[in-house]
Amino acid sequence: MTLKRTPWNIAAIFFLCLFFTACTSSVPTATETLATQSVSSNGYPYPAPSLEIDNLSGYPGPQFITPQPTIDIGNVPPLEIPTPTSGLGIVRGKFSLLNPDRRIILIADIFLASIVNSEGNISVPFIRLDPDNDPVATLRNQIDEFAILDVPPGEYGMVLHGPLTDYVVPDADSPVGFLIVVVKPNEITDIGVIEIK
After folding, report:
1. Interatomic CA distance for residues 82 and 90, integer angstroms
2. What is the largest CA-CA distance in the chain?
3. What residues contact residue 74 under an 8 Å CB cut-off, 6+ apart?
4. With contact defined as beta carbons under 8 Å apart, do 93 and 78 qualify?
5. Cα gap 118→124, rounded to integer Å
6. What pLDDT tens digit does each residue of the chain (197 aa) get?
7. Is residue 2 part of a domain?
């Protein structure tokens, strides 16, 4: 009986040769490799010095958490607000975070953006932010007080403008849903404490 040379027969002979060659080679098997390597304290068989980790909490590890500096409120000097420039006003205030996880918001620039009414049968106010031209807070301190100098008189909405997003400061008592700041010429407008939830 003769064996035909079909693709299946050739493939079977190839895999048998490969199997017998692999079984007789001098390459260590996985169990031999694990026995010769040092195993680190967390059980991973990586051939590197094991790391001593005291706290195995989740990501990010404790070595990546930057401790937040504590601020002694008594040692932070109050903002020195100058006299308003003739015909312009100044807006001052303070942010209070009710949720410390939102601290990233206060890294943003504080703008007063113009309020524009929509055209049509129903006029709806909205805020138009122009970061190149709108008044921005130039005085700030470590306890989240701020002042916006040389603001033309008018009505504004307050926007925290960050690199990735904008946050319009809300006001539940306002009919439009956002904080409206009215600036008068030659006056300092103190908007008080703004709570951010």
Report:
1. 9
2. 113
3. none
4. no
5. 5
6. 555 667 777 777 777 766 666 655 555 544 444 444 444 455 555 555 555 545 555 555 555 555 555 666 667 788 899 999 999 999 999 998 887 777 777 788 999 999 998 888 888 888 999 999 999 999 998 888 999 999 999 999 999 998 888 899 999 888 889 999 999 999 999 999 998 88
7. no
> Cα–Cα distance between 123 and 116 in angstroms, integer?
9
Please indicate, yes or no, if residue 176 is contained in any of the structural domains. Answer: yes
Report yes or no on 59 lying in a domain.
no
Phi, psi of 169 (to 5 degrees): -70, 120
Contact 117, 125 (CB under 8 A): yes
Place of tokens 């103190």: 190
Q: Is residue 3 part of a domain?
A: no
Distance CA 25, CA 15 (A): 15
Q: Alpha carbon of 154 to those of 114, 115, 176, 188: distances in Å?
A: 8, 9, 17, 13
Alpha-carbon span 174 to 79, nearest angstrom: 28
Say how many residues make up the chain.
Answer: 197
SS3 63: helix
The label of the residue with tokens 């033309």 reads: 152
